Amino acid sequence: MKSYNIAVIPGDGVGVEVTKATLDVLQAAASKFSFELAPTHYEWGCEYYLIHGQMMPDDGLAQLGKSDAIFLGAVGWPECVPDSVSLHGLLLPIRKQFDQFVNIRPHRLLKGTAGPLKKTDFDILCIRENTEGEYSGAGGRVHVGSPHEVAVETSVFTRQGVERILRFGFEQAQKRSGKLASVTKSNAQKFSMVFWDEVTDELAAEYPDVKVERYHVDAAAARMVTHPESFDVIVASNLFGDILSDIGAAIQGGLGFAASANINPTRNMPSMFEPVHGSAPDIAGQGKANPVAAIWSGAMMLEHLGEQQAANAIMQALDKALCDTQCCTPDMGGSATTAELAEAIVKLL
Ligand code: NAI
Ligand code: MG
């Protein structure tokens, strides 16, 4: 029987609750489709920080590196640990160390759910560059606090970085409708984004079956609200992808539905799967968290591991469960708990 080593980091707040729900569902899928998931739990996060003064042990990344994939709940507890510390101490080092340069976020409505738009027919795959661009971290401040203070934050776009994310976008477009929306701001940003457009043109020649449409990010943002059905695969830089994928989350019903994968397509190192939402301190510990985003991320993990049938079965079970209002959590207007929704999905599997 095939077996996969999964590194599981439940993290903080509702991260713990949605991770438990997800593992229950994934294990049910594993036994139905005859493979084994061997999870190793890492209790890293803000509680760990308060005891040890760091978010994970010194050899944390080396430990994770042995896994086939990483599942993460959510990290952060702003009352006790500044977000800049919790983010830079765990999540970002993982993305960086394992060169997870693709961030994928699917945006569509599950059956039985409604978003804020009166539209149901969109199915968008947002692909965000995850390692460089506007979030390269290059920059600095001088003359801090003085009237002539200067802050500089430099975007970094490398040919390797731009080419590999675009290539991933082209390949996804080939697998779907053959349409790729490349989002830039090349009218205003005349170096980096013009460069992005040029690399897009170069690659387009290699993928003649893919139709490339170019959008400026402001127009794309508006279009995701007015005509979301006109998009299929969207590829964008780190900042633009970050913003567009939050619009995507909003139109698909909110953070409880926003799934994501941080992928290293070379498969030399583990990829990480996580719901987009945070630790939700306002509802943590009450069983109110919607586990759908986490379970969907778990299904993406199974797909990445090659267990496509199991992933499909989970998505079908999600669709079915959410048509029953008894299974819906408070954010969907229901009163089911996190565990009850997970249980319903397990039963459907
Ligand atoms: P958040 O995503 O935790 O919560 C925002 C709002 O959405 C809250 O009202 C919350 O109750 C609701 N919400 C979130 N997930 C939900 C779910 N599954 N079901 C139902 N409602 C849900 O964002 P917030 O409050 O800004 O951040 C809280 C902490 O989480 C911070 O420490 C932040 O840094 C961290 N964070 C971590 C992320 C990660 O681990 N990837 C992502 C975003 C925030
Ligand atoms: Mg964001």
Secondary structure layout plus pairing:
Elements: E1 2-11, H1 14-32, E2 35-41, H2 46-52, H3 60-65, E3 69-74, H4 83-97, E4 102-108, E5 123-129, E6 133-142, E7 150-156, H5 159-175, E8 179-184, H6 192-204, E9 211-216, H7 217-226, E10 233-236, H8 238-251, E11 259-263, E12 271-275, H9 292-305, H10 308-322, H11 338-348
Parallel strand pairs: 1-2, 1-3, 3-12, 5-10, 8-9, 8-10
Antiparallel strand pairs: 4-5, 4-11, 6-7, 11-12
Helix pairs in contact: 1-9, 1-10, 1-11, 5-6, 7-8, 9-10, 10-11
The structure holds 1,4-dihydronicotinamide adenine dinucleotide and magnesium ion (MG).
The N- to C-terminal Cα distance equals 20 Å
- Helical run tally: 11
Mean pLDDT: 96
Structural class: alpha/beta
The geometry reads as globular
**How many domains would you count in the coordinates?**
2
Q: Main beta sheet, described?
A: 10 strands, mixed
Topology-level CATH name of the largest domain: Isopropylmalate Dehydrogenase
Q: What are the low-pLDDT stretches, counting only 5+ consecutive residues below 50?
A: none
Q: Rg from C-alpha positions?
A: 20 Å
Strand content: 15-25%
Commentary on this structure:
There is one protein chain. The protein is of the alpha/beta class. The chain folds into two domains: 1-103 and 255-349, Isopropylmalate Dehydrogenase (3-Layer(aba) Sandwich), CATH 3.40.718.10; 116-251, 3-Layer(aba) Sandwich (Isopropylmalate Dehydrogenase), CATH 3.40.718. Helices cover 40% and strands 23% of the residues. It is built from eleven helices and twelve strands. Helix 1 (14-32) packs across helix 10 and helix 10 packs across helix 11 (338-348). The longest helix is centred in the first third of the chain and has 19 residues, at 14-32. The chain starts with a strand and ends with a helix.
